[in-house]
Amino acid sequence: MAKLYFHFSTMNAGKSTILLQAAHNYRERGMVPYLLTARLDGRAGHGRIASRIGIGAEADTFDETDDLFLRLADRLAQGPMACVFIDEAQFLTPKQVWQLARAVDDLRVPIMCYGLRVDFRGELFPGSATLLALADEMREVRTICHCGKKATMVVRMDADGAALRDGAQVQIGGNETYVALCRRHWREAMGDHPAQTD
């Protein structure tokens, strides 16, 4: 049975690595996966999903204007498509997430989305919020804060290493820009220091 999956985490948790490994597993068994990534994120090159550990694969791209149900229906008409893998799923629009849900239900193709849950301000991305509402299954990809606790937040740093509190929700960057932290250390970085207790 086809399902809509949302694999979410902070930056640098290995989401792209897991996606690429899963797509490889399909190919190894003679099945055809279809890979999509956000057009606006060109860090790995246009139309490419890459991991920090050095593996990568070519992918088609999407932006906010694409009707993803029609894209997937057209792709399915061209030949077998065992599973759809979407990287940078936080950049989907809410409407596109509904289109993906429709593709799962009507085209009966499993769709695995990988992306961030929250931005550097601790706010849900619109696409991620809709995936949290509609996904049949959700899985957290875990990473750790410098203190050893699970990292659930991300802080955006300026050129001097200071945490930014304001700015556009979307700014493409990697380790030079973002640091994954637990909620307590994210609060400290954002200037909300723990209360003193006796």
Automatic annotation (TrEMBL):
InterPro entries in alphabetical order: P-loop_NTPase, Thymidine_kinase, Thymidine_kinase_CS
GO cellular component, as recorded: cytosol
GO biological process: DNA biosynthetic process; thymidine metabolic process
Location of this chain's protein in the cell: Cytoplasm
Enzyme class: transferase
Protein origin, superkingdom: Bacteria
Keyword annotations: ATP-binding, Cytoplasm, DNA synthesis, Kinase, Metal-binding, Nucleotide-binding, Transferase, Zinc
GO molecular function terms noted in the UniProt entry: ATP binding; thymidine kinase activity; zinc ion binding
Active site, renumbered: 88
Name of the protein described by the UniProt record: Thymidine kinase
Organism per entry: Roseinatronobacter ekhonensis
